[in-house]
What we know:
The structure is a single chain. This protein is an alpha/beta fold. The protein folds into three domains: 3-49, Transferase, Pyrimidine Nucleoside Phosphorylase, Chain A, domain 3; 79-326, 3-Layer(aba) Sandwich (Pyrimidine Nucleoside Phosphorylase, Chain A, domain 2), CATH 3.40.1030; 332-419, Pyrimidine nucleoside phosphorylase-like, C-terminal domain (Aldehyde Oxidoreductase, domain 3). 45% of the residues lie in helices and 15% in strands. The strands form four sheets. A four-stranded mixed sheet has the order 1-4-5-13, sandwiched between helices. α2 crosses α8 (159-170), α9 packs parallel to α10 (211-227) and α12 packs across α13. The longest helix is centred in the middle third of the chain and has 17 residues, at 211-227.
Amino acid sequence: MRMVDIIHAKRSGEELTDEQIQFFVDGVVSGSIPDYQTSALLMAIYFQGMTEEEQSSLTMKMMESGDHLDLSSIPGVKVDKHSTGGVGDKVSIPLAAVVAALGIPVPMISGRGLGHTGGTLDKLEAIPGYQVEISESEFIDQVKKEKCAIVGATGNIAPADKKIYALRDVTDTVDSIPLIAGSIMSKKIASGTDALVIDVKTGAGAFMKTIEDSRNLAKALVGIGKGVGMKCMALITDMNQPLGNAIGNALEIKESIELLKNNGPEDLVDLTTTIGGYMAVMGDVADTPEAGKQLCAEVIANGKALASFKAMVAAQHGDAKVVDDPDSVLPQAKYKIDLPAKESGVISKIVADEVGVASMLLGGGRQKADDKLDYSVGIYLHHKVGDQVNSGEPLLTIYSNREDVDDIKDLLYSNIEVSSSAQKPTLIYETIE
């Protein structure tokens, strides 16, 4: 078998066999297939797509290329959540604590960000001492005891995906549905979870810009999950404007804590408790998502979710005082600079990805994989789409460690619109079950 023949087959629109996909994955892991041939096949997949059978085969071959976590010693249904990512999307951080407070084990393996703001692990590392890299045995013991842990991939999870993703990022093939589906699900299946809720973002700040593309991705992900016997469903949610008010690593940790203190922004609370409701059903503690959502609201209101988060932080060697007094523990930016509205009216647009770029330019995200993050910087929105604003009133506050932020102001002004009227956007478009 030759790699050039596999490239030719996919370029010509043919369906790849299990044997061809296995040859490709083995060659990627061993290094016997050069990057230029891997890149050529990725581009052919980008343009020609894959059948459901090909997607499932690619996912399973990538999963089988490395370690598989055995979580069977953890009692109960293990439930995880994955988001395709967006600006201000810190849902995983409070959600793990909320669902754990219901008695459901949440073994959450998360990632970092490239561009925009940091990923879940980067945000948690804004807490001094928090360890995202722990051993498999420590991970399992913590989930048994505290019911939740949020860590980076333990062991050698899906090594084929690591190499393929690095090439996707530099060959502009990141937003290929078969490749996204294979990447996400190979890691989630290898992580040993029993059930999975997937938050597929759609809009300006998401990989999938349209509802149709988001729906196709959600169906692909759910189909793969169910095909291997996993409980799996997806929600399609809005990412045209940032989620919540805070964008930036330490700022998003503080906002997550505010949510757990029953004082979070409406959209973030709604999405967290909605996803938590589905996880409650999967974890056999609620009969309906609505009942599960109510249970999530209750553990936030009675402080059990906050206590669960504090226990997780302490177990992973973070400074648990962050829960009681975030500002004294989290890194603080030197400058807080308001951006005043130039006119009165109703906010009609906040372009999510450009607000994310603004945070990145302040140092809150990565332009290159090896960039170091400034955890203290970011943006805090005082108003969202549909809100009334008066001329001179702050639209947002820029948290910066440089005094001159004229470039950031210009970027933000060009991506926030004030009109005579606007409707609040839909937060959750549909579910795929």
